[in-house]
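Comment thread on ticket #2218

A.B. wrote:
> Attaching the input chain for the structure job we discussed in standup.
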Amino acid sequence: MYLKRTVLLILILITVFLDNVYSQSAGESTYQFLNISTSPRQLALGGKTITNFGSDVTSGLYNPSTINPEMDNILSVNYFSYFSDISFGSLSYAYTLDNRGNTIHFGFSYINYGDFMGYDEYGNFTSEFTGNESVLSVGYANNINNLPIRIGANLKFITSTFEQYNSYGLAADFGLFYTDENDINMSLVFRNIGFQIKAYDEVRESLPFEVNLGFSQRLDNAPIKWHLTLENIQKWPIGLSNPSRIITDLDGNVTEENISFINELLRHAIIGVEIFPESIFSVQLGYSFRRSEELKILEQRNFSGVSFGFGMKFNKLRFNYSHARYSSASNVNYVGLQIDLN
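C.D. wrote:
> Ran it. Output below, let me know if you need it in another format.
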């Protein structure tokens, strides 16, 4: 009976929130930083892996259903320099409340966009200003009636400031995580369901809502774990014609880039492989088809979409590093430190 009530409640919440999301007009959403990879390990595996279950406390930031007692009293700090002067960092901590495994998760992410020069409409210098955004989250997860299914949720308070304009928002993540006797993991996550409490001006904008579906499995006869994530499965088509690939013939006829069905399908996919996933030293490799298609340069091999990294454990400390190829102009190096405070 408890299971039926829980599932019914989830379906009602999803229906209400999806109706709210799709009733909004198409266009860019605000608070885009919410979907940035929250840890080096996640970025190394392609950027949106949602099936990391265990003591990796940062996984609770992206998928609340992975929150579990193995994260008890573990603190994680992560940082990377994005593009130009943009910097991003995340902090996460989990605490187990009792011997029944009830665990609460706290998270904080912050992005700083650097310094800008301000000018008026006549081109006269006014002043320097900056821009930054942050999100504070509290999460919880637990099993459903001794079933191999975990359900979790994050509640997030968002702040954003650009020059004299500021905005506040409230959002939630809902996740389901399933595992079986063959060590096959499946997870479904509804991210950034919410609204702006205060808009920058008078126009309220939608949040970067997305639905991600993930799969992973550790192989029986090899120290390898594979991951597959299908991102933004609520949106089709996901690909947009690249303006730099427009073809104009001698008569002035313009032909935009044609995105095939297979190409659209692949843009939803992110694949990753982890070697020695639970060992003292681990290696991660990932590939994002969407990032590759959107950022690659024609007739030039720049390996956009490729990412890799490694992790090293020293007693109660674990160091993680990843490198992601975005374009020929810039790439990302991500570092993180996880500390077991027990």
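A.B. wrote:
> Thanks. Noting for the ticket: Confidence is low (pLDDT under 50) at residues 1-27.
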